[in-house]
Amino acid sequence: MKEETTTLHSSLRTIEWKDNKLVMIDQTKLPNELVFVEFTDYNDVANAIRTLVVRGAPAIGVSGAFGLALAALQSKSMTKEELIEDLEKARKILFETRPTAVNLKWGLEKIMKVANEGDNVNEIKELVVQTAKKMAEDDVKINMAMGKHGSELFNDNDTIMTHCNAGALATVAYGTALGVIRATKESGKKIKVIATETRPVQQGSRLTAFELKHDGIDVTLIPDTAVGYTMAQGLVNKVIVGADRILRTGHVYNKIGTYQVATMAKQHGIPFYVAAPLSTFDLQSNPEDVIIEQRNGSEVTGIGDKKTAPDGINVINPAFDMTPPELISGIITEKGIAKAPFGESIKKLFEAN
Amino acid sequence: MKEETTTLHSSLRTIEWKDNKLVMIDQTKLPNELVFVEFTDYNDVANAIRTLVVRGAPAIGVSGAFGLALAALQSKSMTKEELIEDLEKARKILFETRPTAVNLKWGLEKIMKVANEGDNVNEIKELVVQTAKKMAEDDVKINMAMGKHGSELFNDNDTIMTHCNAGALATVAYGTALGVIRATKESGKKIKVIATETRPVQQGSRLTAFELKHDGIDVTLIPDTAVGYTMAQGLVNKVIVGADRILRTGHVYNKIGTYQVATMAKQHGIPFYVAAPLSTFDLQSNPEDVIIEQRNGSEVTGIGDKKTAPDGINVINPAFDMTPPELISGIITEKGIAKAPFGESIKKLFEAN
Fold first, then answer.
1. Domains contained in chain A, CATH given
2. pLDDT in tens, A163-208
């Protein structure tokens, strides 16, 4: 059934559970090589999240859950208490890999809850693995539901700009923002995509351009500096991006650069949409509570072995920025589309849940 | 005297005339190697302009003029008419290297005018070389005058964002926007600089970060995607950039990405300044007349040998964009600062000229 799902939704399956092993695409090798890596140790999964072998908020939520599934299988404990202790240790290590995306916390907590409900070691191991597998399948279903809702916002002959990668490669399969783009195309509308390069890690050129080309969707790459130019030239009708965290007020945390793409869209009267599952929402935090992950300056001072800046230079390299609700035309979820005023609209989506 | 000038203004001299040869820094080798290249053939100068060995509007204006000086020395013609014909041929080849910066046209026309005024072959050769040398010296003087005017706009403890490289490396020496930054520092004010990487050619990381660090000015590098973030965090007080062409209406053509930096500055109430000599102004053209140079997609799909996008991908790679006058707080020139309404203010600068 897994095979069928993969074929149906997209030929790319980013995360898969096979014979008690976790199999993931090594995204650091893209677009040059499509390599699948097997994991049997949760410590390696934590490292994979940290080093962007797997990235994208929904994908790291599910890979965190599978990390705990591996931790459960790895555990030699004979009692429930010892197993929970082992899982708690693994949860901490997995959680500390990346601080901004809320899906990781969500995925880990969901598994810990289920683990605590189990009666004995074998039952817990079984429950944890099955729950993680179900989360992966649900992720694909959620993305397809999101695609269905979102595709209604897009018209025949639209050219849609996207930033970073909120695609199959950011989820288990199909994607959030790119899922909406896939669904729009599947609904029979002709569309084109403009992908920003998304420096410094280049998820736009390495991943989005790769996966859209792979699926036969018309895609054009631009440097991040050309967002304003392409909009001013009338080359963009709509923008859609993913999210790493969304607050109850509609503040959206997403890949660095999203805020300026949204600002330029507003300036040019271009609708700016966000696509994210409900698991991306953080209904508790306020903007001042959210920690923006600061990554190593070496991501900016070179690419691979190629040095592009002088040695010992100061760097500011935040992974995310915040887009305020007034720049957002709509937030597409699996339960429908939230619109301004976002406070009310988001609340309703969760009440319907 | 040349040596002294270099030491006084900045330790970097981008363009120099030595023993009837043109010596330029090969900017494609920066920041890894500081290499000086000698030119004796104007065709090689044209190629150097085309391949960004030398870049920056004022620098290509002067290197175009020196290209014609080399063409004059290379010419074996015995009559004025034949020499003018040779120069005309060289002018065309040099002019067609890059279409957007107006300084190149200005530099070439200035030399052709002088050449036409000469009476005989020897006199023309002498006039052409001396005029090109004077243009180089004037460029430095103009930059220092611009620095003096501009430095009054900046305060102690300002953090100034700049985009691309409008520095010593974009001129003969000292720089336009970075000349203002140098003059501000020389006036005793403490300042810090935030340099954007400036994809795809990375003039910000390769050149601006290099030359400011070289001169001991505090500089921090950010990816182009972090412009909005750093402004939203209150880390930027002012912005200053150079220009490749400025219209009589105050429309500024500058490195791709300038428009969105200016938009973000406006959004955050941060003054946005442009520094450029009068030779950068094009008082004839309207915005619809200006050709935006489109460069090869390979600049965006990889860095050096490192491929960062799938093969055969569509790319939009404009070298410049247009910033409308309503986003600009002031245009700093060697004759003073133009402010809104720019039409009148620019006219006055030229009347005073």
1. 2-143 (1.20.120.420), 144-352 (3.40.50.10470)
2. 999 999 999 999 999 999 999 999 999 999 999 999 999 999 999 9
